[in-house]
């Protein structure tokens, strides 16, 4: 066996070794990403299971010729929610904390907080025109809806 056969064998083994290293790195990285996504999904699902809200009051009041929806929503779950991630649908019209028709949005008496802790009540006053139904959707996707009185 000459040098050319031995040299070719070494080159082939080096090529196989390098190819295996590249393939293993790619497969391992892919596995870690899939595993990480599965863990994130599991955490999101646990948050959804621990989240519960209930609309306490949804009524319309008129003041100075303008109608306002007075809404109270109780955080009855064990998850801390974000006020800024909470959305309100009034007869299918989207409203959130930055909407022009949002007059007041507060937890307790604090209008500056973004934390809506378990057991606390979210109060909202929204400028409206004769609404029939309201739906509140939290950041994790848990919602409750109510007929407006």
In words, what does this structure look like?
This is Fla cluster protein FlaF. The chain has one helix at 3-49; strands at residues 53-63, 66-75, 81-82, 87-90, 93-95, 102-107, 115-116, 121-128, 133-137, 143-147. The protein has 149 residues and is an alpha+beta fold. A hairpin with a 2-residue loop joins strand 4 (87-90) and strand 5 (93-95). The chain folds into two domains: 1-49; 53-147, Immunoglobulin-like, CATH 2.60.40. The chain contains one helix and ten strands. The mean pLDDT is 88.
Topology, please?
Layout: H1 3-49, E1 53-63, E2 66-75, E3 81-82, E4 87-90, E5 93-95, E6 102-107, E7 115-116, E8 121-128, E9 133-137, E10 143-147
Antiparallel strand pairs: 1-2, 2-8, 3-7, 4-5, 4-9, 6-8, 9-10
Brief account:
The chain has one helix at residues 3-49; strands at residues 53-63, 66-75, 81-82, 87-90, 93-95, 102-107, 115-116, 121-128, 133-137, 143-147.
> Kindly, what is the distance between the CA atoms of the first and last residues, rounded to a whole number of angstroms?
96 Å
Specify the helix fraction band. Answer: 25-40%
CATH architecture classification of the largest domain: Sandwich
Which class of secondary structure composition applies to the elements?
alpha+beta
What fraction strand?
35-45%
How are the strands of the biggest sheet laid out side by side? 1-2-8-6
Q: Please state the average pLDDT score.
A: 88
What is the top-level CATH class of the largest domain? Mainly Beta
* Rounded radius of gyration (Å): 28 Å
State the domain count: 2
Find the count of extended strands (DSSP E, 2+ residues).
10
Order of helices and strands: HEEEEEEEEEE
Can you tell me the overall shape?
A: rod-shaped
List low-confidence stretches. none
> Major β-sheet, in short?
4 strands, antiparallel
Please tally the helical runs, counting DSSP H or I stretches of 4 or more residues. Answer: 1
* CATH topology name of the largest domain: Immunoglobulin-like
InterPro entries: Flagellin_arc-type
Protein name: Fla cluster protein FlaF
């Amino acid at each position: 066996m000459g040098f050319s056969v031995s040299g070719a064998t070494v080159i082939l083994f080096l090529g196989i070794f390098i190819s295996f290293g590249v393939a293993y790195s790619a497969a391992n990285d892919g596995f870690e990403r899939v595993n990480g996504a599965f863990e994130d999904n599991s955490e999101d699902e646990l948050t959804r299971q621990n989240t519960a809200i209930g609309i306490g009051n949804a009524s319309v009041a008129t003041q100075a010729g303008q109608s306002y929806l007075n809404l109270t929503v109780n955080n009855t779950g064990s998850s801390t929610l974000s006020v800024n991630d909470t959305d309100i649908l009034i007869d299918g019209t989207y409203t959130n904390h930055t909407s022009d028709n949002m007059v007041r949005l507060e937890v307790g008496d604090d209008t500056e907080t973004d934390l809506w802790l378990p057991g606390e009540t979210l109060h909202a006053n929204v400028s409206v025109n004769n609404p029939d139904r309201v739906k509140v959707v939290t950041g994790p996707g848990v919602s409750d809806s109510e007929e407006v009185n």
